[in-house]
Amino acid sequence: MTRPLKAFIFDLDGVITDTAEYHFLAWKALAEDLGITFTREDNEELKGVSRMDSLEKILALGGRTGDFTAEEKEALAEKKNEHYLTLIQNITPADLLPAIKELIMDIKAKGLKLGLASASKNAFTVMESLGMKSEFDIIVDAKSVVNGKPHPEVFLRAAEMLGVEPEACIGVEDAAAGVQAIKAAGMFAVAVGPKASFENADIVYASTAELSLEKIVVVYNA
């Protein structure tokens, strides 16, 4: 039996705001510096994946996996992050995805806890720019965990920080790796995106505009 619902834990990129375009442009700039062709299709493989794992995928694309030391790879990842930080300076509350602010306010009105579990190392900066940082009880970012998604660590850490059991949490994600992480953590999974991409999710919505606390809770309690 499902425990009484106590918390929602959100992914950031693609759920609360769409920084995917900024990540793509930053990775593309780095790839071009390295003489590697990097397309939007290639970028799909990086959704929900950590920065260092994303770099490894890009180096593999260009056949350059063995060309850099661990220290040089760290420097490359940092260079990508500098590109990204420049690009996201213009984010404002207007960049919240459709219906997300309403959903968050509905969750808070019900007295449920709110957590963020993001693969981004810039989650605090982005949430501040969106005007949403103060609405969340806790934020867990890539700096806080050892294992990236699809490992459940980031969601388990969020539940621990919120003081709730994983089974009493609903996770919201837009990446297959993220949904895997939610399910591995023992949580109820809400996915945003094409239904065919999320066989393991408990509910799938085509876009954030369709998200509804009432509908999610009905399925959770079923």
List its traits.
222 residues, alpha/beta, Rossmann fold, DNA polymerase, domain 1, six-stranded parallel beta sheet, 9 helices, 6 strands, globular, metal-binding, Beta-phosphoglucomutase, beta-phosphoglucomutase activity, cytoplasm, magnesium
Task: Walk me through what this model shows.
- The protein is α/β, with parallel strands linked by helices.
- The protein folds into two domains: 7-17 and 95-221, Rossmann fold (3-Layer(aba) Sandwich); 20-90, Putative phosphatase, domain 2 (DNA polymerase, domain 1, Orthogonal Bundle).
- Helix content is 42%, strand content 11%.
- The protein has nine helices and six strands; from the N terminus they run E-H-H-H-H-H-E-H-E-H-E-H-E-E-H.
- The protein has helices spanning 20-33, 40-44, 51-61, 70-87, 100-109, 123-130, 153-162, 176-184, 213-221; strands at 7-10, 113-117, 138-140, 169-173, 188-192, 203-205.
- A six-stranded parallel beta sheet has the order 3-2-1-4-5-6, sandwiched between helices.
- Helix 1 packs across helix 4.
- The radius of gyration is 17 Å and the shape is globular.
- Keywords: Carbohydrate metabolism, Cytoplasm, Isomerase, Magnesium, Metal-binding, Phosphoprotein.
- Its EC number is 5.4.2.6.
- Belongs to the HAD-like hydrolase superfamily. CbbY/CbbZ/Gph/YieH family.
- Substrate binds at residues 11-13, 27, 46-51, 54, 80, 118-122, 149.
- This is Beta-phosphoglucomutase.
